[in-house]
Amino acid sequence: FYCFLVYERYVRGEQSYWYPYLDSLPTEFDTPLYYSDAELCELKGSHLFKSVCSIKQRLVHIYEHMIRPLTAMNSEVFVKEVFTLENFVWAYSVVWSRVFPIQFTDRDGVKRVLPTLLPLIDILNHKSGENVTYYTNEQDHTFALRSSAALRAGQQVFNNYGGKSNDSFLL
Predict the structure, then answer these.
(1) How crowded is residue 96: how many other Cβ atoms within 10 Å of its Cβ?
(2) How many CB atoms within 10 Å of residue 142?
(3) 8 A C-beta contact, residue 132 and residue 158
(4) Which residues, 6+ apart, have CB-to-CB distance to 88 below 8 Å?
(5) What is the 3-state secondary structure (H, E, C) of 79-117?
(6) Of 126, 125, 123, 103, whose CA–CA distance to 115 is shortest?
(7) What are the φ and ψ backbone dihedral angles of 35, each rounded to 5 degrees?
(8) φ/ψ of residue 73, rounded to 5
(9) How far is CA 120 from CA 49, 125, 135, 164, in A?
(10) Measuring CA to CA, which of 58, 100, 131, 133 is 20 to 30 A from 35?
(11) Residue by residue, what is the 3-state secondary structure of the chain?
């Protein structure tokens, strides 16, 4: 998933079918993953500090043991100058700042949850207490987000990210 985002954005660029969506995504993030060492030290002793350190270590491990070897094995697709740790962390940040857990049934009939990017839906702002329901239709591969609130034309539609801690919102 992360490699796909990096490839489509930085290798295929404007030629990508997904370019209009990818071009709308942030190019920079200001989440704790991007904090300087000094800024991160300010979080020492907090759950957030432990979470950020753990995520950073996991991302570096995945990059070093999975992504970097791909650049050596297939440098035409996995261009070393493009498949950098920085771009890998960017892709991670894109996914986890806007992913939806979509339920589907696999070929064996087992219900699974697939992290999914949903262009336009992913830009909705969060509003605590907003009664929002997701619907997926596996037959026609559609997704709908429905709010129980009565909405007027031009009124903002909100999403509800659920009961998350402030740490989760920051990550």
Answers:
(1) 14
(2) 9
(3) yes
(4) 2, 6, 59, 62, 63, 67
(5) CCCCCCHHHHHHHHHHHHHHEEEEEEECCCCCEEEEEEE
(6) 103
(7) -65, 150
(8) -80, -35
(9) 31, 11, 16, 22
(10) 100
(11) CHHHHHHHHHHHHHHCCCHHHHHHCCCCCCCHHHCCHHHHHCCCCCHHHHHHHHHHHHHHHHHHHHHHHHHHHCCCCCCCCCCCHHHHHHHHHHHHHHEEEEEEECCCCCEEEEEEECCCHHHCCECCCCCEEEEEECCCCEEEEEECCCCCCCCCCCECCCCCCHHHHHC
Which residues have CB under 8 Å from 142's CB, separation 6+?
136
Token pair in block for residue 34: 């991007």
Which residue type is seen at 52? V
* pLDDT tens series, the chain, 171 aa: 899 999 999 999 999 999 999 999 999 999 999 999 999 999 999 888 999 999 999 999 999 999 999 999 988 888 899 999 999 999 999 998 888 888 888 889 898 888 889 888 888 888 787 788 888 887 887 888 888 878 889 888 888 777 666 666 666
